[in-house]
Write a structure and sequence with these properties.
The protein is mostly helical. It has helices at 2-30, 36-64. The protein has one domain.
């Protein structure tokens, strides 16, 4: 049960982090600091990395506890 709660809490933290990064990327795009191609690339990489970490996190908690 604890592992399930740890996983949900960590997934919320990861979601918040990725969402904040996307807001930063959108601001940089509006200020013409990055190109549209780089903007799409950064959003894709951030989303995939967050999803990958959130999926593997319960396995890490299982091995830790």
């Amino acid at each position: 049960m604890e592992i399930f709660l740890f996983s949900i809490f960590s997934a919320l933290i990861i979601y918040t982090t990725v969402r904040s990064l996307i807001k930063v990327y959108n601001t940089a795009l509006k200020r013409d600091e990055i190109s549209k191609r780089k903007h799409r690339f950064l959003i894709t990489i951030s989303t995939l990395a967050g999803f990958f970490i959130a999926t593997l996190l319960p396995l890490g908690y299982l091995s830790l506890f």
